[in-house]
Write a structure and sequence with these properties.
Strand order of the largest sheet: 1-2-3-5-6-7-8-9
Largest sheet: 8 strands, antiparallel, barrel
Distance between the termini: 41 Å
Order of helices and strands: HEEEEEEEEHE
Shape: elongated
CATH topology: Porin
Low-confidence stretches: 1-5, 7-21
Structural class: mainly beta
Number of domains: 1
Amino acid sequence: MIGIRRAVLGGLAVVLAAAVAHADYRKGEMMFQIYGGGAGLSGRYHQPGVSKDEQDYADGGSVIGGQFLYYVADNPCLALGFDISHASFDSHDSNQLLLNRFTQSSADNTTGLAVARLVYPKGRVRPYIQGGLGVHHTSLTLNGTPTNPSGWNDTHTLETRDLLDEGHIGPAVEGAIGLHVYVTERFFIGAEYKVIDLIAKDFSPTAAGSQEGLLTTQGTTSESAIGFMLGFGF
């Protein structure tokens, strides 16, 4: 039993010693990290007389991504790089968005950004702020199914129809804050919160959507996400 305790304490000492040893960021160093977490989308339809809660483009979803950074300056400690991510959002269901229709709305987007990061370069815990500029592709779909016995007005059938189905490419602007905690000299874990403005032209309904009174809706929206990451420097 004493031998086991000594082995455990010895192992902990090695881990703690490794956690204390961490190299400061310096010009010329590089970093790679991957992350994943939860995400939300701010957009809504604009149907008159319908409550905001029934008009969301989508419910919460998930985001995954990766970042590569190269440190270009020591003081202040500045890194440049790129960030690629994909967010997929759960469908938002409603019986009130359109009269006598059950609707399901969903969205997803892929974003590529050139980023600049200002970071505290020393110690085990290193906070940072980050900004980015790039492009995104965001898609929005809405389908509907009649809930009344008479069905669709033109055919009196009950099949599900696409009422909106469009995807747009546009500029993306990011702001983020984050924190890295070094476990060893080069390996870290961390967390990041970011907001990305997704700028795009408006989404237009299909012919079936126009027949149902679905209005053209705002294409510019924003994504917010909080993710947890792991990475290493080299």
